[in-house]
Design brief:
Elements lengths: L5 E4 L11 E4 L2 H6 L8 H9 L3 E2 L3 E3 L3 E3 L4 E2 L3 E3 L3 E3 L15 E3 L1 E5 L2 E7 L5 E5 L9 E5 L7 E9 L17 E4 L16 E9 L9 E11 L1
Parallel strand pairs: 3-6, 4-7, 5-8, 9-12, 11-13, 12-14, 15-17
Antiparallel strand pairs: 1-2, 10-11, 14-16, 16-17
Length: about 220
């Protein structure tokens, strides 16, 4: 396939076959719908391994998974998911949102656990009214590794019944550090439907705040 050519895939195909692939030498061939220059599945695999580059804007109507280098010198407008296993450098993000997951409650070692899976989201809604009792420990699972950081925000809501508490220092939970020492660890606001917000940060491969130890911050309490 010629260097700088524009690779096109027919829409609606879930697997790459030679008959699905063709390329254009310039934009006029794109506009005319010319499909005379055939590519092969081997071409696209080689092209992707060499790090494709898009000179203009790119609109994606499905999902894109990138495991190597993908350079875009215009805008990317995804209408599905973009899954990147490497780094994204220098993006200007507009109108983005973040996934919110639910913290889960389960009885295990050390009592009633609140567990938040960092691979699912970075923001967790925690309705403590749905817990069967006070929360004995908090576990953050699957944080980033390899010298990367993970930040988790808990949006904690009390119910309209019995107020719940959280023990940040449960023996089987993730280790929490608070500015000024453990005596400054926050308590939950106990008012009906009260909202408290807490953020936790960990950096793998560092001292003190490591992948299993988290620095805690009070974003705000008693929102109403």
């Amino acid at each position: 396939m010629a260097t700088g050519s524009i690779l096109s895939l027919l829409s609606g195909n879930t697997a790459i076959a030679d008959a699905d692939l063709f390329y254009h030498s310039d934009e006029s061939e794109v506009a005319s719908g010319d499909r005379s220059k055939k590519a092969t599945a081997a071409d696209i695999r080689l092209y992707m391994l060499n790090g494709p580059s898009v000179q203009g804007n790119m609109t994606v109507s499905g999902n894109v998974t990138v495991s190597g280098t993908f350079t875009v010198k215009g805008d990317i407008t995804p209408q599905g998911n973009v899954i990147v296993s490497g780094n994204i450098t220098g993006p200007a993000l507009e109108g983005y949102s973040e996934t919110v997951a639910l913290g889960t409650f389960a009885t295990g070692a050390g009592g009633l656990n609140l567990t938040c899976d960092c691979s699912a989201a970075n923001i967790f809604a925690v309705n403590v009214a749905s817990a069967t009792g006070n929360i004995d420990q908090v576990k953050f699972t699957n944080p980033a590794t390899g010298g990367r950081s993970t930040a988790i925000t808990l949006y904690v809501v009390q119910g309209t019944g019995t107020a719940r508490t959280i023990d940040w220092f449960g023996t089987s939970g993730s280790e929490m550090l608070w500015a000024g020492g453990s005596g400054n660890a926050p308590t939950l606001t106990t008012g009906l439907s009260a909202v408290d917000v807490f953020t936790f940060l960990t950096v793998s491969g560092t001292t003190n705040v490591t992948g299993t130890t988290w620095a805690g911050f009070v974003g705000g309490k008693a929102f109403s």
